Amino acid sequence: MADSHHEKVIIVGGGPAGYTAALYAARADLEPLVLEGPQPGGQLTMTTEVDNYPGFPEGVQGPELMELMKKQAERFGTRCIFEEVSKVDLSQRPFTLTAGSDTYTCDALIVASGASARWLGIESEAKYRGFGVSACATCDAFFFRDKEVFVVGGGDTAAEESLFLTKFASHVTLVHRRDELRASKILAERVQADEKVSLLWDSVVEEILGEDDPPHVTGVRIKNVKSGEVTDHPADGIFMAIGHTPNTAFLKGQIEVDDAGFITTAPHSTATSVAGVFACGDVMDPHYKQAITAAGTGCQAALDA
Length: 305
Ligand code: NAP
Fold this sequence. Notes:
Elements: E1 4-12, H1 16-27, E2 33-35, E3 49-50, E4 60-61, H2 62-75, E5 79-81, E6 85-89, E7 95-99, E8 102-111, E9 115-117, H3 123-127, E10 133-134, H4 137-140, E11 148-152, H5 156-165, E12 171-175, H6 185-193, E13 197-200, E14 203-212, E15 215-224, E16 230-234, E17 237-240, E18 244-246, E19 277-279, H7 291-304
The structure holds NADP nicotinamide-adenine-dinucleotide phosphate.
């Protein structure tokens, strides 16, 4: 049976932004409800060691960090439930959210729905997703012990995933569309110095090659964008690390977003185009995208709310 619930504050998303917003809102007696979405804990649950979150001099495992944040928010009365919001009505207060067959209303809404991995968008990528094509080395590297793998991208994620894969794969080839990595200097140097990693510059993936019965990847077709040369390379796995897209589909038409889909907020604030709706974390941050900055804006969103 469909249920209806009214809340003072609802937080959509259970990542560093959502749990920090919940911690602050709970301590302000707002009794927040967190609708955690399809991936409770957010993107950090797909990483291993987090070395750049302050307060953990020896590093901390991503899933453990998220569990700690959640527990801390719950200690002050936050309730977290595993629900994915499919649509919202922000045209009047209270705001209305639909999740499954349930309806929620709230006086203030904090959107902390994060971002999802981007894909190349070619047919063979969708065909072999889960059968050798992945966007999470941390989740799937284990399946590629002593195998030949490729990573696509040139940012920190691509560098980090390549280095992580070297622990399992026989060899890692990093394919980047330009001749210079976007990754931070330390990671770029580390990946270029690793003897298990080779780099293919100025190159794009044209096709993922595979067989159907059972479905598995056998290779990757790569084009050099400068020479136009196309070559097939044997491969068992291919990991996409080409950035993320903000999770705003459920807000379609209800709130202002920029050209890339990130929620726009007022300068030095988490206020969105709708009074009473606040945004924090990766869903509104096309620039920094760190756990600590997400947590910081989560705090701001709760204070603003
Ligand atoms: P990113 O910095 O946006 O890099 C995406 C990479 O993918 C770029 O090199 C880009 O190429 C390439 N790319 C994008 N679309 C492509 C396409 N269609 N085909 C081929 N290549 C494509 O994303 P990210 O690496 O996920 O990092 C996101 C943020 O998280 C960054 O701020 C990063 O610093 C941060 N991060 C930090 C750490 C860490 O500090 N340990 C780890 C992971 C992520 P171009 O370079 O040509 O644009």
